[in-house]
Specification:
With about 425 residues, this protein is of the alpha/beta class. The protein is globular. It has 16 helices and 15 strands.
Length: about 425
């Protein structure tokens, strides 16, 4: 069997490294850009269907492989691809875009590292932090506020809803995103905002009848709309020290049932309190790798309440590149060269958007953040995540089909705009 090259010199990276990207979302395209800008190399992207706004790029080879959202076919693919790349003298560097891919690669890392270098977190750590009971317990240990929370056991068909002490609306969401990936039931959403006890019982009953056998989180609803949300994107080195963190104030999120919570407009807003809390958390659990945290500002108390951690690169990882930090280079130097990352201070001269100006103008509540984002459209600093002028016409065409489709989508799913 072939093996990955060892003891690689920095000068040889551009001629040998082969990025392999699992998944085809905005973060995959950010990786394609980052690897090209760092090393001038084309990536290989594996997706289970054709995402035209990504697959048409001239900077990557896009391969559709049916069934790679299942563990067996995914591992078979990686073994075959690893052999092929190593036989060709390449240095395979494997990155994941999505909870499922991160979990499977992390769980089988010992085998996969025969062929691939990969910056995924150790499985014991990833498994720990992606179970939200553990996440909230650790938040308490390191002094991070979080909403009042209860867990309902979906594996027990006799379990009943316990909402005592909560007032509606409240939030309900799965405790384990990777397991939830396979659950099929009517009305499935990424996150539910529940208006009353009958709706909560219906969701709980549907989950118990599905394949999902983890917990359903029932959580206090922190008042305020999308513009109360904050996101922190970070990378922790082998000592679990933060090499960079980028803190963004979210202006607007996606409201499609399958994409609730994905930011579509953000501006940089460094926050020492929030970023220090993230650093304490990562150090406490011994985390190594890319991650992102979601927090919501609670105007009632003046506190930031942390909602979750994603043990993978976030969908909007392009904000790290916008901040002047090439996160692909940092991961390669850390994992391949064994070099300690030098802490980087991000730029705050950017605005991230995934929707046209008209959606921002109609849907965001009035305020300083909205004015800042709208002003960035006028000055050209508002940057669409899939708009790379160096890319080919076909990719940019499909990118803008995606972009302008958001107008009708937000009219359908957010007809009256977002709450303040």
């Amino acid at each position: 069997m072939a093996r990955r090259p060892e003891h690689v010199a920095e000068k040889d990276l551009a001629s040998t490294i082969q990025p392999v990207i699992l998944g085809a979302d905005y973060s995959a395209y950010a990786y394609v850009r980052a690897f090209w800008e760092a090393y001038g190399v084309h990536s290989i992207i594996y997706g289970n269907f054709d995402v035209k706004s990504i697959s048409r790029t001239r900077f990557a080879e896009y391969r559709v492989v049916a069934g790679i959202d299942e563990e067996g076919p995914l591992l078979e693919l990686l073994r075959s691809a690893g052999e092929e790349l190593c036989d060709a003298g390449r240095l395979p560097f494997l990155v994941t875009c999505g909870d499922f891919y991160a979990r499977i690669v992390s769980e089988h890392r010992a085998e996969l590292e025969r062929w691939f270098y990969t910056p995924v977190a150790d499985f014991d750590v990833l498994d720990f932090v992606t179970q939200k009971e553990n996440f909230y317990r650790t938040c308490e240990e390191v002094g991070m506020d979080y909403p009042r929370t209860r867990f309902l056991d979906c594996s027990d068909p006799e379990a009943e809803v316990d909402d005592e002490g909560f007032s509606y609306p409240l939030v309900a969401k799965p405790s384990n995103s990777a397991a939830y990936h396979y659950a099929e039931f009517p009305g499935k959403k990424k996150v539910f905002v529940v208006e009353g006890p009958e709706e909560l019982r219906r969701i709980f009953d549907e989950l118990k009848r599905s394949s999902y056998d983890e917990s359903l989180i029932v959580q206090e609803y922190v008042p305020g709309g999308d513009s109360h949300m904050y996101a922190v994107y970070a990378y922790a080195d082998a000592r679990s020290d933060v090499a960079f963190s980028v803190c963004a104030h979210v202006g607007l999120e996606d409201h499609h049932p399958g994409a609730i919570g994905n930011a579509v407009a953000m501006a940089p807003e460094p926050n020492e309190e929030v970023e220090a809390a993230v650093a304490r958390f990562l150090k406490r659990v011994g985390y190594h790798g890319m991650c992102c945290f979601d927090a919501k500002f609670d105007a009632r108390t003046g506190a930031f309440k942390f909602l979750e951690m994603n043990a993978r690169p976030g969908r909007s990882s392009w904000i790290v590149l916008l901040s002047g930090i090439n996160f692909a280079r940092i991961q390669v130097e850390d994992v391949v060269l064994g070099r300690d990352p030098v802490p980087v201070v991000p730029s705050d001269e950017w605005v991230y958007v995934a929707v046209p100006r008209g959606v921002i103008a109609r849907c965001m509540p009035e305020g300083a953040l909205k004015e800042r984002i709208l002003a960035a459209f006028r000055t050209g600093r508002a940057r669409f995540a899939l708009d790379w002028r160096a890319d080919c016409a076909a990719q940019r065409l499909w990118a803008y089909v995606n972009y302008y489709h958001q107008v009708s989508k937000f009219k359908k799913y957010l007809p009256h705009g977002d709450a303040s």
